[in-house]
Amino acid sequence: MESSPSALLKLLLPKTPSILKTALWHTLSMSPTASKWDVRTAITISILRDMIGPNSPPTTITKIQRLTTKDPPVKGKVWVSKVKLAVPEEDDVRQMLFKAIDDMGTGDEQWTKPDTRPLEAEWNGYRADARDDEPEPTDLSEKEKYDTMLKETSSKVTLLYFHGGAMYLMDPSTYRPTTSKLAKSSGGVVFNVRYRLSPQNPFPAALLDCFTAYLSLLSPPPDAFYDPVPAEQIVFGGDSAGGTCCTALLQLLLQIHRSTPTGQIPSVRFHGKDVQIPLPGGVALASPWLDITRSLPSIEDATVYDYLPPPSATEHKVYPACEAWPAKPPRAELYANTSALVHPLVSPLAAPDWSGSPPLFFSVGEEMLRDEDAVLAQRAVGQGVKVIWREFEAMPHCFAMLLEYLEGARVHVDEFGAFCRQVVEGKAAGVESNGVVIAAKSLKRKDVDVAKGLTSITEEEVKTYMQKGLERIRKKEARGEEEARAML
User: Fold this and answer.
1) Beta strands 387-392 and 189-194, pairing class
2) H or E, element range at 346
3) Reduced to 3 DSSP states, what percent helix, strand and coil does the chain have, rounded to the nearest 5?
4) What's the pLDDT score for residue 5?
5) What is the pLDDT of residues 422-439, one digit of tens each?
6) Residues 182-201 pLDDT 10s
């Protein structure tokens, strides 16, 4: 997106009265967030609410994507080595995914079988000696940049990263400031994946890309310039919708393992080889989106510190028609057909079985997605999975990316990187489940019981909430169909 002074002035000038009001109320301690936030944070969140809230100017999906998927010039403390990998001749990976979808569903879900496309991604690493505004070297090939990047690593961590953006926004290039920090804190490198975006590519296109990315690390295609990465050195990482990708991919792998005879490691034919599919070393999640129906209580109740609009505020908001939306055939949700929204590979919160999973790391704020994250974390612990829970008081969704100047954001990055190092450096067996709540300003830490202290929401209540969320979306879909017929 544009970041020139004139563009920023154009954006902020109409918001001046709101900014001044927010600053005054906060300074006078008349704001409900005054005791937890500084003025800068209050103004930042206020602007975000205005930009994406129910009263924001209607914008087409096509225009939003055009603004959020630009590939800016590479500069600063990040190495970028781009890859584009050929499509495998075999169809085995697609068919393995489709079988898992069928086996895990009810049979009533409607979804479109995507084709396999060349995988696009970029290797990111921390470039220690670069100035913040220094451009990348122009005399190095992509392989040479990759090889130079590896020389700056201090661990064997490979973070397979899936970016956020509600499944229809953003590009991996937007995440370079984040992946650079994570590479530094973990001591390793990041494989930053460009998965297909909705609504043009609905479920399971993105999941197929994520699965292909994992296999491409385990067994690089012939046109790749990097070496195979052992599964135990790979950590899935992602924020928001990237957390959807992480947990859906993990659940896919668990299902493949469940469908394989005991004692055997599943495998698939990939670029002419039989490639084994072990589980990764761990999964690290930042504010993961686990329930596409957006139905648990915190979605409506935890709005004080968040900027995301709740479903009740956007129930009747529609995107103007464009090339990408409404989808053909029409549907209510961008990511998947309504009938598939509670499928475990669409909304991982619906997956009942996480036993056998590698260690999980959660970093969440006091945000609207907190309930679904807490339910899944507590469920996993109850099934024998090691879970590290870090909850940041009074922080909004994905706060460490948006409010990177806060000390809490630095703590998040440090904790994320420490988890990656711990599970990769042969210490996963020593990982013990633990939870910590971190205070907003003082950063004081308070232990929380991850086995029974994260949430009181029962499994039956989760099912009820998700069914109610599904019904809400079905009604929205029905209204849209009625409006469409009225226009004929």
Assistant:
1) unpaired
2) none
3) 40, 15, 45
4) 46
5) 999 976 567 899 999 999
6) 999 999 999 999 999 999 99
Average pLDDT, the chain: 93
Rounded CA-CA distance 437/289 in Å is 20
Which pairs with CB-CB distance under 8 Å and at least 24 residues apart come from 399-406?
399/287, 399/365, 399/367, 400/286, 400/363, 401/178, 401/239, 402/44, 402/48, 403/41, 403/44, 404/177, 405/40, 406/41
Q: Which two tokens stand for residue 48?
A: 């975000």
Structure tokens given for 231: 């599964």
Specify the residue for token string 């050195």: 233
Task: Tell which residue, 159, 148, 142, has the closest CA to residue 229.
Answer: 159
C-alpha torsion sign, points 160, 357, 206, 229: positive
Bridge partners (DSSP) of residue 193 are 121, 162
**pLDDT digit string, tens, across residues 16-49:** 666 777 777 777 777 889 899 999 999 899 888 8
**Strand, helix or coil for residue 171:** coil
User: Distance between CA 32 and CA 45 in Å, rounded?
Assistant: 13
Are the C-beta atoms of 123 and 80 separated by less than 8 Å?
yes
Question: Two tokens at 145?
Answer: 């940049």
> Are 388 and 437 contacting, i.e. CB atoms less than 8 angstroms apart?
no
Q: Calculate helix-pair angle for 241-258, 92-104, nearest 10 degrees.
A: 90
Neighbour-count burial of 255, counting CB atoms closer than 10 A to its CB (0-12 exposed, 13-18 middle, 19+ buried):
buried
The amino acid at 102: D
Distance CA 27, CA 331 (A): 45
Q: Please give the angle made by the CA atoms of 92, 356 and 154, to the nearest 5 degrees.
A: 85
E-assigned strands of 244-342?
Answer: 267-270, 273-276, 282-286
Which parts of 219-369 fold into alpha helices (H)? 241-258, 298-301, 311-314
The CA distance from 81 to 420, in Å, is 21
434-438 and 445-448 beta bridge pairing: antiparallel
Give the SS3 label for residue 135: strand
pTM for this prediction: 0.95
User: Does residue 358 carry a pLDDT above 80?
Assistant: yes
Element (H, E) at 409: helix 407-424
The CA distance from 109 to 342, in Å, is 9
Kindly report the length of the chain: 488
413: exposed, middle or buried (Cβ count in 10 Å: 0-12, 13-18, 19+): buried
